[in-house]
Amino acid sequence: MKPAYKRVLLKLSGEALMGERNYGIDTNVAEAVALEIKAIYKLKVEIAIVVGGGNIFRGVSKSAGNMDRSSADYIGMLATVMNAVVLQDALEKLDVFTRVMSAVDIPQLAEPFIRRRAMRHLEKGRVVIFAAGTGNPFFTTDSAAALRALEIKADIILKGTKVDGIYTADPMTNPEATRFERISYQEVLERQLKVMDASSISLCMDNNLPIMVFNMRESGNIMKAVGGDLTIGTLVSVGGKAQKAT
Question: Domain with 102 in it: what CATH number?
Fold first, then answer.
């Protein structure tokens, strides 16, 4: 298969590493994700990854209780570092050269995020995992994904979720919800579709950075997304009316 993109940013939720568990990390799932990443790595695609931490702790959740929002968000950032190191371990066991770069300084575990160094790692064929979000509270890892993708000049954000794209309503609760194959940034914002937070969608719209939303749990979908296959999800891009999947 010929990849449609040279450099991609893969956004993984923390829940993607949780598997069927209610909490924490399923190392078997991490290994399965690593195998899929290796498949596109072998195609010489430059891969950056932003990983969430919702499988361990999320600042805006019941688990945060009455904590100060900033403190809770910093704990969530540390959770993303844990997930990044797990994913790095799984990738390096498959002989995929990997670097973790953290927005919060933890030199024993990760390099500090330096944009030019990150781009150099990618040019040298290393997978770069960005941890600790943006390093600032009140920003989600979706915002971090948009920001890092723009900083490294990625061709697209590939957002792996538990559903196969963007729907007119929540497909988990509404059986009549239908999937979009294509949709514009503006329509995502106007319809208040919960694919990414509004600030990250706006950032992508302002810089014309496309987003592909697809089901991470289906084996082989990362490869299909890199190949530009629109049947597996929804492409968010500039212009054009919403187009529902047939």
Answer: 3.40.1160.10
Give the tens place of pLDDT for each residue, 34-64.
999 999 999 999 999 999 998 888 766 666 6
d(CA 191, CA 115): 34
HSE (side-chain half, CA atoms, 13 Å) at 148: 36
Q: How far is CA 52 from the centre of its chain?
A: 8
- The total of structural domains in the chain comes to 1
Tokens standing for residue 124: 């040298």
Residue 2 belongs to a domain: no
What token pair was written down for 144? 């971090």
Q: Is 205 part of a structural domain of the chain? A: yes
Classify residue 1: in a domain, yes or no.
Answer: no
Domain-embedded: residue 122: yes
Place of tokens 């049947």: 231
